[in-house]
Amino acid sequence: MKKIRKNDDVVIIAGKDKGRRGQVSQVLSNGRVLVQGINIAKKHQKGNNAGVAGGIVDRELPLDISNVMVVNPATDKGDRVGIRALEDGTKVRFFKSNDEQVDI
């Protein structure tokens, strides 16, 4: 089970976008995440004959998963996430500061 999943609201804790919030759009297998509207870079793109126009386009680049924290709605701040097994054997994520479940 992953501690950060797609559609989680996260806050950036390091880098040029520190303090900004966004939603995880993709979790990559190499330990990186794509966050909507965060870590935008300009890419010079060449046009082609199929109708794609060339020019400078904005592109989201992945962040390392260690540079994001899940936002706790109770405190409205970033919080560490742990994993625990319930009595019936299912695993759930929980916030370490107040022991509330992330997925309800």
Description of the molecule:
There is one protein chain. With 104 residues, this protein is an all-beta fold. It has a single domain (9-95), classed as SH3 type barrels (Roll). 0% of the residues lie in helices and 45% in strands. The chain has no helices and 10 strands. The strands form 3 sheets. It has a 6-stranded antiparallel β-sheet, with no helix packed on it. It has a two-stranded antiparallel ribbon with strand order 4-5. A two-stranded antiparallel sheet has the order 9-10. The two termini are 16 Å apart.
**How many domains make up the 3D coordinates?**
1
Strand percentage, roughly? over 45%
- Major sheet strand order: 6-3-2-1-7-8
Cα gyration radius (Å) = 17 Å
Q: Which second-level CATH architecture applies? A: Roll
What global shape is seen?
elongated
Please state the average pLDDT score.
93
CATH topology: SH3 type barrels
The top level CATH class name:
Mainly Beta
Number of strands: 10
Largest pleated sheet: 6 strands, antiparallel
Percent of residues in helical segments?
A: under 10%
The low-confidence parts are: none
Q: List SSEs in N-to-C order.
A: EEEEEEEEEE
Put simply, the count of helices is: 0
